[in-house]
Design goal:
Elements: E1 4-7, E2 10-13, H1 14-24, H2 32-70, H3 78-87, H4 107-110, E3 114-120, H5 124-132, E4 135-137, H6 138-143, H7 159-176, E5 190-193, E6 196-199, E7 202-203, E8 210-216, E9 219-227, E10 230-236, E11 250-256, E12 260-264, H8 274-289, E13 293-298, E14 301-306, E15 311-314, E16 320-323, E17 328-332, E18 339-344, E19 350-352, H9 353-369, E20 381-385, H10 391-408, E21 415-421, H11 424-427, H12 430-435, E22 441-446, H13 448-458, H14 468-471, H15 475-490, E23 498-501, H16 510-516, H17 519-522, E24 527-530, H18 533-545, H19 548-558, H20 564-567, H21 580-604, E25 609-612, E26 618-621, H22 623-638, H23 644-661, H24 678-688, H25 699-712
Parallel strand pairs: 3-12, 3-24, 12-17, 17-20, 20-21, 21-22, 22-23, 23-24
Antiparallel strand pairs: 1-2, 2-18, 4-11, 5-6, 6-7, 8-9, 9-10, 10-11, 13-14, 15-16, 18-19, 25-26
Helix pairs in contact: 1-8, 2-10, 8-9, 9-10, 13-22, 21-22, 21-23, 21-24, 21-25, 22-24, 23-24, 24-25
GO molecular function, one term: magnesium ion binding
Organism: Boseongicola aestuarii
Binding site for glyoxylate: 332, 422, 447-450
């Protein structure tokens, strides 16, 4: 039993209480009594409302299950189905047109389209890397990935590859910053004369793209350019190994890359108790105070990493121009479902973790608001709220943060809300979800994996779903993606808030990402998720090619591209003409991904990692990817596509594969041959109990099993 202290009727783990009182509250102008009293109100009064909302979720799901059971083996009647969803309150009436009134959003949210990183907040090194990924070397990104002529070579620097990298970078410069009558490939000298940038005495085609320089104007150390709101820094150094071989002395091309980053307390972490939550909150505090550091060994050397400073240049008129050196940081709170044993209410029940996150992460963000040059220059706090089901749950989040603001002495709507459009009841009611928080919405996005997991669970009784790759090809997914942007634009998000798209999950396949992910800005999204700082640098190229705000204006003028009826087109398997080999392969692929992720989650507390798939392709896995795989197998089990014994045998075979893939990890505990470890049992639970999990979420099982393992240590 953990050591607890009483605070305003709450039984708080002493570790968390000491962190709050000695670290988080210090310098916040919030008293301990006010904080604990406000949190107690959240836990008890708001907690009751939270439980009611979860009960409504379950009631609605039961009604949908019953409808599908009654109509099983009949042709799907879309008209009757839609009418039924309206009758039970799943589909709510859509009100009059409106636009959000969100104010004081930072440029990174309102006016600078670009990549967005999502990282686990419990890993200080990753958190710092994400914050510092505001700037990245295009030379390094091209050289160190398959974006240039296949996989990067091992061993010493390859001059031939380096020359190709420089040539590719010059092509980018020609496209984004064209010179009158000259190519950057032929340039020999960059200098500033009478406030203008000249390249071999030729001006830029658009001189307004020159923003500033460092050093002497006749031979600058750096030149700052801007295109579509994103900066590019040309670094000159003739003593540098690269610059010494370049005719213009150009040593690097640095791109403004991850303009924003989500520090995640949710899907990419494994926080199951006070010990874990304090790690998360302490890292967020370090980021908000600006003093987070991490020391580690890299390449045989001890390295200490801290937050990068801002960049300072001389503007064309001789004044000083400052550019942010760090990504704008948002924090993703836990959703409405989960509770956490870190704090118990007056009846001895765990309080809802999302309510705890709301109060504590906002308290911590107050430290940034008190700084002159910190995270938000507009005095705002950015909280991304996941896994909300419909407008009532968004309204609950809005009310929660109003209470938090009042408790912490913040102005109304200081907290800006990110609505993740990843549950079907939110998707089909997105306009009303936005309306429910119209004065604080700063972000909406689509997330295919969680959205598909919910799609399967919501329609579990409707029949067997298509194979995962085929689900992506169904009409509902394009309707979902298009409608999200269209509604966001119709509700006035352009110029005030982010409209985002989901993750590129293959961090080692950057050439493929460069081919595919340009679709996101072309779709009107002013941010999209990437798995690494290097990916952010390369994805930034897409925002130089595409003027996102011009795309948004055109889309808004064109009207809606999708109707809710298309979103409600359930991606069931139409013909089910699978042979045994195809069925087995599909289940193996799902099982291998689940096991590869869960074994690290349970045994090592790693909530997000690069997991090799069945073909040894490294994929970024978090609870969202795990949710879809578990729900898919659960669906096929439920409808007899595969039986329990077959799935168990596949899980054991894939556990052997996963053991082999992790053979080089000295901290890894193999699952085979006994298959009795807690991690293997957790993976099986996700599959065999998946049909009855709330909304098909993985969290309840993973948390229970992780706590079981921690108790055994």
């Amino acid at each position: 039993m953990s050591d607890r202290v009483d605070r305003a009727g709450l039984q708080v783990d002493r570790l968390l209480a000491e962190f709050i009182e000695t670290e988080a509250l210090a310098g916040s102008d919030v008293t301990a009594d006010a904080f604990w009293s406000g949190l107690s109100t959240l836990a008890h009064d708001f907690g009751a409302r939270n439980r009611e909302l979860l009960e409504i979720r379950q009631t609605i799901q039961s009604q949908i299950d019953d409808w599908h059971i009654r109509h099983r083996n009949q042709p799907h009647n879309h008209t009757a189905y839609t009418a039924f969803l309206k009758d039970i309150g799943y589909l709510v009436p859509e009100g009059d047109d409106f636009e959000i009134t969100t104010s004081n959003t930072d440029p990174e949210i309102a006016s600078i389209p670009g990549p967005q990183l999502v990282v686990p907040i419990t890993n200080a090194r990753y958190a710092l890397n994400a914050a510092n990924a505001r700037w990245g070397s295009l030379y390094d990104a091209y050289y160190g990935t398959d974006a240039t002529d296949g996989a990067p070579p091992s061993g010493p620097y390859n001059k031939g590859r380096g020359a190709r990298v420089v040539a590719k970078s010059r092509v980018f410069l020609d496209e984004a910053f064209a010179i009158e009558g000259l190519s950057h490939a032929d340039a020999r000298r960059y200098h500033v004369h009478n406030g203008a940038l000249l390249i071999d005495d030729q001006p830029l085609v658009d001189p307004s793209k020159f923003i500033g320089f460092k050093g002497h104007p006749k031979a600058p150390e750096a030149v700052l350019l801007r295109n579509h709101g994103l900066h590019v820094e040309l670094v000159f150094d003739r003593t540098h190994p690269i610059g010494s071989r370049d005719q213009a002395g150009l040593a690097d091309v640095r791109l403004e890359a991850a303009v924003s980053a989500i520090l995640d307390c949710e899907d990419s972490v494994a926080c199951v108790d006070a010990e874990d939550k304090v790690v998360a909150y302490r890292n967020w505090l370090g980021l908000m105070k600006g003093d987070l550091t991490d020391t580690f060994e890299k390449g045989g050397k001890i390295v200490t990493r801290a937050l990068n400073p801002d960049k300072v240049f001389t503007a064309p008129d001789g004044s000083e121009v400052t550019v942010k050196g760090r990504a704008l940081m948002l924090v993703r709170n836990v959703g409405h479902l989960m509770t956490n044993p870190a704090i118990l209410d007056r009846d001895g029940n765990e309080i809802f973790e999302g309510l705890m996150d709301a109060m504590i992460t906002t308290l911590i963000a107050k430290h940034d608001l008190a700084r002159d040059s910190g995270n938000s220059v507009m005095g705002s706090v950015y909280v991304v709220k996941p896994k909300m089901h419909g407008p009532d749950e968004v309204a609950f989040a809005d009310d929660t943060f109003t209470h938090v603001e009042r408790t912490l002495g913040l102005a109304r709507d200081t907290v800006k809300l990110g609505i993740m459009d990843e549950e079907r009841r939110t998707t089909v009611n997105l306009k009303e979800c936005i309306r429910a928080a119209k004065s604080r919405v700063a972000f909406i996005n689509t997330g295919f994996l969680d959205r598909t997991g919910d799609e399967i669970h919501t329609s579990m009784e409707a029949g067997p779903f298509s194979r995962k790759d085929w689900i992506k090809r169904k009409a509902w997914i394009s309707a979902y993606e298009n409608r999200n942007v269209d509604i966001g634009l119709a509700c006035g998000l352009s110029g005030k808030a982010q409209i985002g798209k989901g993750m590129w999950a293959m961090p080692d396949q950057m050439a493929a990402m460069l081919q595919a992910k340009i679709e996101h800005p072309q779709a009107g999204a002013n941010c999209a998720w990437v798995p690494s700082p290097t990916a952010a640098t390369l994805h930034a190229l897409h925002y130089h090619k595409v003027d996102v705000f011009a795309v948004q204006a055109k889309l808004k003028a064109g009207g809606s591209r999708a109707h809710v009826d298309q979103v409600l087109d359930i991606p069931l398997a139409a013909f089910r003409m699978w042979d045994k080999r195809q069925i087995t392969r599909e289940v193996e692929n799902n099982a291998q991904g689940i096991l590869g992720y869960v074994v690290r989650w349970i045994d090592q507390g790693v909530g997000c990692s690069k997991v090799p798939d069945i073909n040894n392709v490294g994929l970024m896995e978090d609870r969202a990817t795990c949710r879809i795989s578990a729900q898919h197998i659960a669906n096929w089990l439920h409808h007899g596509v595969v039986d329990r014994n077959e799935v168990r045998a596949i899980m054991e075979r894939m556990a052997v594969v996963v053991d082999g893939q992790n053979a080089g990890d000295p901290s890894y505990a193999p699952m085979a041959p006994g298959f009795e470890g807690i991690a293997f049992k957790a993976a099986c639970d996700l599959v065999f109990e998946g049909r009855v999990q709330p909304s098909g979420y993985t969290e309840p099982i993973l948390h229970r099993r992780r706590l079981e393992l921690k108790a055994s240590l």
